[in-house]
Amino acid sequence: MTTSSEKSITIALMDPPYESGTTTTALRIMDAALRKGISVNVFAYEGAVNLTMRGQSAHPNPVKGTSIEEQDHPSTAKFIAGLFTMGQSNPKLEWVNCGLCVDERGAGEWIDGPRRGGPGDLFKFSQESTNTLVIGTR
Amino acid sequence: MPGILSVVERAYHGTLEEQDDTILWLSHMIKNAGADLSVLLRSNAVNYAVKGQDASGLSIGGVGLGVPPTLDADVEALAAAGIAVFVVEEDLTDRGIGSDELCSGITMVKRGGLAKLFDDHEAVWHW
């Protein structure tokens, strides 16, 4: 019988941050898996490579008149940095940003944790994982 | 004749990461910039007008969302700012939403009345 520590899930994700509910849902699935001791492999494709960009900054909200501190704007980079803290060893989080997608977007400044890769990594992840979840752009 | 009718139908796309709906926010900003603007909520976006929404409690990787979106309050703020906010009545009915569940400042419009509503505006921005 496979234990949770031996299980892993691969998630292929395409959407960029701040534009879709799929990114929040995918991050929640990653969080839930890691909490259950299931390792997570992420292949960030196309716009999803922007999720880990280091330079994401909080801003005030002029509609509500709130300051940067009051608005406490989240960022996907902060969420994912937290996931990397959870997934340091066992369970482990691996995150591959599609290198060509990064190049065409000039999106190479990441938080610590992700590595550059390509479609072959998605195939390898899927071969090695218990299951694969593909979340495409609609 | 009112100026712009902003039609919102995509709902809950990035609202947790953005802490709001980007088009409601944009509409409010454009109003503040001097535009004569109305907003029409249709399809799934009619749910934005349901009062009592609570999106608190999200945490990812131990990082909490300290300020969750408050879409019903954002809709009420549009109305308070002088923006006419319309909701398609049949889209509410299709989703089992009663008029007593809506926040204040909303005007219901039937699908059969949309053509006139469009015609009553100089421009229609369909997001």
Strands of chain B, count: 7
Helical stretch count of chain B? Answer: 5
Largest sheet of chain B: 5 strands, parallel
How would a textbook summarize the main sheet of chain A? 5 strands, parallel
Query: Which fold does the CATH topology of chain B refer to?
Result: Hypothetical Protein Ychn, Chain: A
| Rg from alpha-carbon coordinates of chain A | 16 Å
What oligomeric state do these chains adopt? heterodimer
Which homologous superfamily in CATH is the superfamily of chain B?
A: DsrEFH-like
Averaged pLDDT of chain A: 95
CATH class of chain B: Alpha Beta
Count of the domains of chain B: 1
- What's the name of the CATH homologous superfamily of chain A? DsrEFH-like
Shape of chain B: globular
Q: Report the structural category of chain A.
A: alpha/beta
Cα-to-Cα separation, first versus last residue of chain B: 21 Å
Q: In percent, how helical is the residue content of chain A?
A: 25-40%
> What's the architecture of chain A in CATH terms?
3-Layer(aba) Sandwich
Descriptive keywords:
heterodimer; A: 138 residues; alpha/beta; Hypothetical Protein Ychn, Chain: A; 5-stranded parallel beta sheet; 5 helices; 5 strands; globular; B: 127 residues; two-stranded antiparallel sheet; 29% helix
